[in-house]
From TrEMBL:
Species of origin: Pseudaeromonas sharmana
Stated name of the protein: Acyl carrier protein
Residues bearing the modification O-(pantetheine 4'-phosphoryl)serine: S39
This protein's UniProt keywords: Cytoplasm, Fatty acid biosynthesis, Fatty acid metabolism, Lipid biosynthesis, Lipid metabolism, Phosphopantetheine, Phosphoprotein
Positions of the Carrier domain: 4-79
Signal peptide: none
Gene, per the UniProt record: acpP
Length: 82
């Protein structure tokens, strides 16, 4: 899956799960400060991404994730490791 396609899927998940304005979901948007997600929301996002990728996501893979772009990078790497 191309990086742009991953971004679109992550964006769609964020909009659907957390009722965010699609325009606010950019690669540079910070998950906690800009999008006001919390740790429970992060778990929900990981569950959605596991369904999307069909891969188990280990918590340590997401420890450094701070922005939407970081999520896209992590998912892209996960898919590349397949």
């Amino acid at each position: 899956m191309q990086r742009e396609a991953v971004f679109e899927q992550v964006k769609l998940a964020l909009v659907e799960l957390f009722e965010l304005d699609a325009a606010s979901v950019t690669e540079t948007a910070h998950l906690y400060q800009d999008l006001e997600l919390d740790s429970i929301d992060a778990v929900d996002l990981v569950v959605r991404l596991q369904k999307l990728t069909g891969k188990k996501i280990r918590p340590e893979e997401f420890k450094t994730v701070r922005t939407v772009g970081d999520v896209v990078d992590a998912v892209t790497q996960l898919l590349a490791d397949a």
